[in-house]
Specification:
Blueprint: H1 20-29, H2 31-42, E1 55-56, H3 59-68, E2 76-80, H4 88-92, E3 97-102, H5 105-114, E4 121-125, H6 133-139, E5 145-150, H7 156-165, E6 170-178, H8 179-185, H9 196-204, E7 205-213, E8 218-219, E9 226-233, H10 244-256, H11 262-270, H12 274-284, H13 297-309
Parallel strand pairs: 2-3, 2-5, 3-4, 5-6
Antiparallel strand pairs: 1-8, 6-9, 7-9
Helix pairs in contact: 10-11, 10-13, 11-12, 12-13
């Protein structure tokens, strides 16, 4: 039952250690997977592909994920997509209050039934992309919230955008994302994974990779592995620019035309002549023959500052 998710580990048998494959199969096909299937089947539910539902069925990993959240007794937490409740009770035992947001009506009812005796849990049936974090923080009398979630891969970027927009009331966000996505967020300049997403996240938060999870930890099994990451929200951006819109216009243009030189990408993205681009690059101390994929966030910020003071720069 979800009311008692924490179970004692069985003692390892004598005579050697089972292989990783055997241990993973035993963990995934044991209590966690069986309980999720039983809970859904009893209510006529099944995983919904359009919602990107992949339920975590490894109870040992659920425990480790919540431990990585570094929760405090006076925290108010928000869980994105509580699903079948793999993390929900574990979070609730560690915080003052938990707001569990779940879009799926069937799963919301499952959670109401299973968590009816948990006064610390407030269930919100709705889309996190429409959830007001600032109002939630104010209603619970806290300045900052902790956000946790096993989020659908196909809405990872919109969820990050929502979190970054409301980062003033978010202390940190611990999220399970696609492993390749996490690698893009952490990429270094000049690598194939490096892109506008890297810089967008870096501008708003510090990224901390926490642990990898194999696809076998989920049901239905996804085609890729996942990674747990923590976003420490920045109080102030790491670079100073006169206009965030101008900065990201330059960045997006550079990566949309990543094989072209800055002389061409800035000309096109800002709709200014090459002579003006040359002046901007010269003022920023950056070779206009470089490609945007080789620039750091600090170098893009220098270009944005120069562009803002250049007569040929667009009004934003």
């Amino acid at each position: 039952m979800l009311r008692d998710p924490i179970r004692r580990k069985a003692a390892a048998p004598h005579g050697g250690r089972a292989s990783l494959y055997v241990r993973e199969r035993a963990a995934s096909e044991g209590g966690g997977l069986g309980r999720v299937r039983e809970a859904l089947t009893a209510r006529g539910l099944s995983p919904r592909k359009r919602f990107g539902q992949n339920f975590l069925v490894r109870e040992d990993l659920a425990e480790r994920i919540v431990e990585h959240c570094h929760l405090r007794e006076d925290d108010v937490a928000v869980e994105i997509g509580a699903g079948a409740g793999a993390l929900t009770p574990r979070i609730a035992t560690r915080v003052r209050a938990l707001i569990a947001v779940e879009k799926d009506a069937g799963l919301s009812q499952l959670l109401r039934d299973e968590l009816a005796g948990w006064p610390r849990v407030e269930l919100v049936e709705g889309d996190f992309l429409e959830f007001d974090l600032a109002a939630a923080a104010a209603s619970h009398g806290v300045a900052k919230l902790v956000v946790i979630g096993n989020i659908p891969y196909h809405v990872t970027t919109p969820i990050l955008e929502r979190l970054f927009d409301q980062r003033a009331v978010v202390r940190s966000a611990v999220l399970l994302v696609q492993k390749e996505y996490a690698e893009r967020l952490a990429a270094a300049a000049g690598t194939p994974e490096y892109g506008s997403l890297t810089l967008y996240a870096r501008y708003h938060a510090l990224l901390e990779p926490l642990m990898s999870l194999r696809a076998s930890a989920f049901w239905p099994r996804p085609t890729v592995d996942s990674m747990l990451v923590r976003f420490h929200m920045r109080e102030h951006p790491p670079v100073e620019v006169p206009s965030e819109a101008l900065l990201f216009r330059i960045i997006r243009g550079s990566f949309q035309m990543r094989r072209k030189q800055l002389l061409n990408t800035i000309e096109e993205s800002l709709a200014i002549p090459k002579e003006a681009v040359a002046r901007i690059c010269r003022g920023a101390g950056i070779d206009p023959r470089r490609r945007g994929e080789t620039l750091t966030l600090d170098e893009f910020a220098k270009l944005a500052r120069e562009a803002a003071t250049n007569d040929g720069a667009p009004d934003l």
